[in-house]
Amino acid sequence: EVQLVESGGGLVQPGGSLRLSCAASGFTFSTTAMSWVRQPPGKGAEWVSAIKHDGSLTSYIDSVKGRFTISRDNAKSTLYLEMNSLKPEDTAVYYCVARGRYAWTDRNAWGQGTQVTVSS
Fold first, then answer.
1. In this predicted model, what pLDDT tens digit does every residue of 8-43 receive, in sequence order?
2. Which of 54, 90, 92, 109 is 20 to 30 Å from 7 by CA-CA measure?
3. pLDDT tens digit string along 79-113?
4. How distant, in Å, are the alpha carbons of 46, 58, 115 from that of 40?
5. What is the DSSP letter of 32?
6. Under a CB-based contact definition with an 8 Å cutoff, are residues 91 and 9 in contact?
């Protein structure tokens, strides 16, 4: 059973930074592509970023390119999302997903989410 536990969310001012973490268990993390997905208040979920199983390839939605960095530590079965220059429109619940970019809608592979609020 896929288990994903996100942490690191919170309230931050515009221009600030946060680092999200996702502790994974219940599956072979080192052979699984991973994604971050977010759901802004009152809106549908959107894919944000993905990383190949070995970390050799990453991809991002255009709105976060140059500001967010996805990474992983396969020895610790942990996924990260470094978020810099945060904007109010980045406010959302952020979910770790045990799927790559084109399969992120599989809700069975989502964590419980962590709230990120960008506000002054």
1. 999 999 999 999 999 999 999 999 999 999 999 999
2. 54
3. 999 999 999 999 999 999 999 999 999 999 999 99
4. 9, 23, 10
5. -
6. no
